Amino acid sequence: MLPHSYTVDSQSKSQDLASSILSSTSSSQIISTCSSIDSFLLSHSPDQTRHFFSLAFPPLISKLFFGLTDSSSSSSKPNPSNGWIDSVLSSNDPDSANAVFSLLSPASILFHSISAVDRLSLVKYVFPIERLPEWTRFALSSNKFAQALSDLSPLFNSKLKHDPIKPSALQIQLNVFEYYLFWFAYYPICKSNSENSDSISIKRARKFRLENWTSSIPGFSNSKRGNEQRIECNLYLRLLYAYLRAFVPIHDLNAHHPYRSSLLHYASGYDGSVTMRAEFVVNAFVHFWLVDNDFSPLPVNVLKSHGVSFPFRSVLGDTPPPASGLGEVVKLFVKYLNLSSVAVTEDGGTENCGNPRWRVLNSGSFDGGGGSGAKSRDVAAPLRQAGSWNAWIQRPLYRFILRTFLFCPVGSSIKNASEVFDVWITYLEPWTITWNDFAELDAIVDGANKSERKEYFRSQGSSNGYSPSWQGYVLSNYLYYSSLVMHFIGFAHKFLHSDVEIIVRMVSKVMNILTSSKELVDLIKNVDTVFHSKQAGSGKSMLNSLCRFVPLIREQLQDWEDGLCESDADGSFLHENWNKDLRLFSNGEDGGQQLLQLFILRAEAELQAISGDNLADNLKCLDSLKAQVSCLFGGHTVRTLSFSPEPKQYSQSRDDIFKPRRVGSHASSEIKYRGDWMKRPISDDEVAWLAKLLVRFSAWLNESLGLNQAESSPAWSYVEVSTDVANVCGPTETMRAVLCAISSWLLTLAAVVVRLMKSHGLRVNLRMLASKKVVMVLLLSAVFSVVKKAFGLFHRV
After folding, report:
1. Has UniProt tagged this entry with the keyword Membrane (predicted)?
2. d(C-alpha 250, C-alpha 242), whole Å
């Protein structure tokens, strides 16, 4: 029993620390406050630190992530730009960055105190429901779904409790570590939402370049810092990497990890195993970052086994794309977890990795509750390769990338999609992951000996690329190399007009990965062959070794693309076969080869229309893309381009089904408009039927006036003038002569205008009249005119 004086002293100092934390804004104040927190925790026992975690820890989280001036972080509107993390980033001060990192690192005094307090179960927090992932918020809004949530998701196992004030309501109760990690995972989501709301008025962002994907992500960069921003000042990435390295082992999850000295020293009777703690960290990041607003957040078979059906589609309404600004953190998260696949491959785990029936590892909570939690462990835990984290992120990452490609609205910036594309590319080629990718962050985190880490994180594919030892990885993630490629081709067609150079390079990058190795090309094509031969029932397949993967791939296809329908994804080419078939190597008009051929033709037309100094380089990139397409599908599928900046007329192809719709006597791809603006997809600010009508009418005018042909030298005609001279007399003949003169002048003027348009390459463009703003102005004018006349007649009566 502690003396009363010690208790009062601890409580008063905790209150003083809370006030100091909330008032700290400058770098010197932040450094001083961090030092005071360490001093307090060192000089007090776990019983006494309970007051710190009750009174000062919530304000610390509020100030750290959101810059709030009080501890009511659950009710106040967070503003991450005022938090310590963003303040340190904007100030570019390594001293304050190191002070905050030392306070929050896994080996810090604070985390040792968290371990002690949680071991004694001295403090519990209630996490605000409005900060949870969107699908979880909806599930908790109904008691029926809330009760099932505890069984379905290991993340919330044994954490759902009844509100003591309102017993009918449920709340999320967490210990100190779990509470902090939830806020840590929520920060980038809040940062993204905050910056998106602040930038609504910005109609046109600066042109986004491919090489700036990872240097211009909102929330983790600052436009004012330029290229001199130090990576050690990016606190969030430093902390994320430190937590992953400390809490998520990438080798044998049950073996001693050489870097586990910084773990929270929980007793084995408390958390059960290191695996359970690692699973909690991975699950938290997956649900906050990858799942979030997904309308199919859980595997279909898990929901069916519990007899639960979530009507997310009807509740969430329009499907929003994933939150922007997550590219850098998700990329680091995915790349780190894929190191476990590298380790499995190197240690001869190919057979386990490729086996379609993986063992199930239990997932639970830190406090090891029983009851409904125990019931869910054998069902909700994901199937995982032995020693690999890959299966934990397969489905949520696939749907995260898929929702970005399908539901990114036309007219929006390609920046968010480019970040997600970069994550996909990282996942497609794990054999390129090396220790050098983490060397800089690792040196900043603790400056450890790099040679020691290189031996532990050895990467087989650092120089040789894909090898047969990676066959198991490709087979277990086959949809990333097949179906998702088709969805991406639809995305590329949809956004080709936004920045043709970037889109072409993105498609080329994907094709380059798929064709980087003959063994990889053969594997992808053989699996597709086996998939369709089994589906068609064409007898015994010659590739029996791959037949056992077909049921798993078909199950993944139906599960990972669950809930999609034709009306949701404008621009996709798989409307009729969402999750039923693989179409990459199909010979139909919606097959990958034909769609890539059409993409190349459209890209060439777009590049020639915008011209520019980079036309030759861009056309060379298209030639490279055609070579990759030929390598993947075999044969010369697309004709070779000649490097001429002049517009070309495409010859008739024998496969007319792959040609665009025709307008008049010309195909839409042959109608050359400056900037190709009239060929772009219907945007949200246009009246769809009116835009189509005006495009057709404009095409008819251009064809009638001869504006689709280049200007030719005029052939002068001579008219013989009669020698008979007649006098014009009388009003009728005079009026006729005047009308003929006016008509001749108008015709001459029209001919001059048409000749000028031909010489400058101009075309008739009436599509702008389909703008909703223009239509609204005309409609209001007409209504006003009618109302005005009606009032005039009323007053006359």
Report:
1. yes
2. 13
315-354 pLDDT, tens per residue? 554 556 676 678 889 999 999 999 888 777 766 544 444 4
In 3D space, the residue among 715, 704, 794 whose CA is nearest the CA of residue 757 turns out to be 704
What are the tens digits of pLDDT across the range 438-463? 888 888 876 555 445 555 444 444 54
How many residues make up the chain in this entry?
A: 797
Place of tokens 């097949």: 482
How does residue 433 score in pLDDT terms, banded at 50, 70 and 90? confident
Nearest to 678, CA basis, from 700, 646, 657: 700
| Nearest residue to 474 (alpha-carbon basis) of 525, 438, 508, 435 | 525
Among 318, 508, 321, CA closest to 413: 321
Structure tokens at 711: 């200007």
| Tokens standing for residue 325 | 């600004």
Tell me, rounded to whole angstroms, the distance of Cα 194 from its chain centroid.
Answer: 17
Q: Is 33 exposed, middle or buried (0-12, 13-18, 19+ CB in 10 A)?
A: buried
CA distance 337 to 245: 10
Taking residue 267's Cβ as centre, other Cβ atoms within 10 Å add up to 8
Distances (CA, A) of 779 to 288, 776, 785: 46, 5, 10
- Provide the pLDDT for residue 482: 94
Q: How far apart are CA 287 and CA 308, in angstroms?
A: 19
> What are the tokens at 560?
């990972």
CA dist., res. 322 & res. 284, Å (int)? 16
Helix (H) or strand (E) holding 791: helix 772-796
Give the pLDDT confidence of 552-594 residue by residue, as tens digits. Answer: 999 999 999 887 754 444 444 444 445 568 888 988 888 889 9
Mean pLDDT of the chain: 74
Environment class of 283 (CB within 10 Å of its CB; exposed 0-12, middle 13-18, buried 19+): buried
pLDDT in tens, 259-287: 444 444 444 333 446 788 899 999 999 99
Token pair in block for residue 307? 């007899």
Q: 62-66, long-range: CB within 8 Å, 24+ apart, which pairs?
A: 62/22, 63/21, 63/22, 63/24, 64/100, 64/104, 65/183, 65/184, 65/186, 65/187, 65/190, 66/187, 66/190
Give the global pTM: 0.71
d(CA 518, CA 674): 42
**What is the distance of C-alpha 665 from the center of its chain?**
41
8 Å CB contact between 248 and 337: yes
pLDDT tens per residue across span 26-59: 889 999 999 999 999 999 888 888 889 999 999 9
Q: Give the helix ranges, DSSP H, for 153-248.
A: 176-198, 235-247
Dihedral angle computed from the Cα positions of residues 696, 697, 701 and 703, in that order, rounded to the nearest 10 degrees: 20
Which residues fall within 8 angstroms of residue 365, CB to CB, at 6 or more apart? 154, 157, 158, 159, 276, 280, 373
Contact 123, 50 (CB under 8 A): yes
Nearest to 338 by CA among 264, 404, 419, 425: 425
Helix ranges restricted to H, 43-158:
46-51, 57-61, 84-91, 94-104, 109-119, 134-140, 143-152
CA gap 56, 33 in Å, rounded? 12
Residues 149/359, Cβ–Cβ less than 8 Å: no
